[in-house]
Amino acid sequence: MQRFLYIIIILTTLFSCKTEDPEKEYGSLHKRIEHKSEHYKPFYVQNNSEIEYDTVQVALDTVAAHHFGIPKRTSMVDSYPCNKCHAVSIDELKSKGGNFVTPKDKAHEGVTAKDCKSCHEYLKKSHWNISLNHADDNAMNCATCHNQDEMNNLSSLTNKNINFNNSYQICSQCHSTQFNEWKNGAHGKQLTGWGEPKVRQTCVGCHNPHDPAIKHRWPSRLNTQMIEQRDLE
Amino acid sequence: MGNNIKKWFSIGSKRVVNESCDSDKPCSCKSEKTNDGFDQVLNAQTDRRNAIQKLTAGLLIGAGAVSSSCSVSKSDEAKEQSDLDWEEYFKGNYKLMTDEEKQNTVDRLTRSYELRTGKKINMSAAGPIDDVLYGYAFNISKCQGYMDCINACVEENNQDRESQMQYIRIHEIEKGSGIEFKNGDDTYYHEVPAANHFYIGTQCFHCDNPPCVEVCPVQATWKEKDGIVVIDYDWCIGCRYCMAACPYDGRRFNWKTPEVPEEEVNKNQHYLGNRLRKQGVMEKCTFCIQRSRNGKNPACVEACPTGARVFGNLLDPNSDIRWIIENKKVFRLKEELGTEPKFWYYMD
Ligand code: SF4
Ligand code: SF4
Fold first, then answer.
1. What SS3 class is residue A69?
2. Which of A52, A62, A63, A194 would best serve as a mutation to test chain B binding (most B beta carbons within 10 A)?
3. pTM (2 d.p.)
4. Which of B172, B173, B167 is nearest to B151 (CA)?
5. Smallest CA separation from ligand 1 atom 2, residue
6. Domains in chain B and their CATH numbers?
């Protein structure tokens, strides 16, 4: 009889362990995540057409050690390349007395008819709408970011050329905290999805570099039903 | 038994195969899992099973279905529709279906939609991806209260327009009063961000230990392997126990049949996600299952203009979400309840 009882006790303990949710054995979600991610294999998005993202615009170079792509900037800047108009440096222009910039000069020497468009398409309106609302005059002017001698490039604080596609390198000179969060994913926006390949919006994708603050605006919806229901309560 | 009749009383293609074993003896070739419809309901395997099935079916079937299916005057389409309705009516719980049965029900629903509206939809029965556990992070410092996420969610998930159903709520709370939702306002309409206020979004948090799942009397809601808490809208009886059990106001009830203008219907659907629901069932955020199981981000993440929303795979040690959880000061709501929501809040 006693032996029979023992067997029952052993059996019940055995089975009560079996029916436990296997996920509960970790005790907490964090432990489970930690343990299960040991054998993680990256998930590649198989159906790329599902992603509404122009892969041509994704720069394939990645930020060192942080593997993600960023959208190309140059194809989004209307009047890029800048030297279509800015053929000479700003200093040279100033010395010539020109207060605006042309590839040749005001006299249009040696300019053929087919060249007109290279400037005049943009000339009339170029940059009229840009006013710098970013830090104060003491800290920043146009030349802080733009290379005045070679307009196709941005320029670092120590006058090193930086490609427009890598404009985050300009921003990160001052905004190092934001840069650190951005490259790790806590600041900014994922573009393609959670799987590989990862693509992340750059600084200038959300912030206008000449006026970077996020603006006030109205919310995009008003739920009148919810208000009605609450009023009824 | 004629082939036709067999079809009448078979639910899913599995059944036709199973009919081949001697129905006078208890059938040993079925396991509970592969059974669908009636077999799940009356899972006792008696030799009278067939008789009961036919009897119940006979009682339950509407006279309309009988007449349209048998009548020669009805069009083929009407017959097909009522056949589909019939099989749909008696299908089993999605959770217990085999992959084939899942695909069958999805095919039926797609066909049925086509018959009704003449439009094609693309419905998926995609299962969870291996080595994936979805998680979400929300940056309270970044959210400006624009509510673009809600609009995107409503459009993506075919939510009812008239009752303005929304899975996400954005709460405007005065700074200094803590995160107290009862002091918050989720129906503000003024320029945002308002001075001295902050914004915090809530939706279903896809708890790892979901109390809503525990209380469902018919197991119409459950947690998938990838951590998404889903609802089988066709199995839900609308008792709203789960709504009461959710500590986060994550669930919404359909008081009326959701209506979406035809041109606005998102045709890229998932059985457990944004397919058009019916009246009297529960629905909620599914982390856009139709998108996330495709590698995409949920619609709210894509729509947020501030980057306050981060989505990712918790099992990927290099994912953004993991970095946030491990390096930022994160918290979850009502952590003391032990629900383990997979939705973290953080600040800059
Ligand atoms: S937030 Fe609510 S509805 Fe979502 S899983 Fe948790 S308890 Fe369930
Ligand atoms: S409303 Fe539906 S999902 Fe919620 S507990 Fe009731 S049957 Fe289950």
1. strand
2. A194
3. 0.78
4. B167
5. B246
6. 37-120 (no CATH), 134-346 (3.30.70.20)
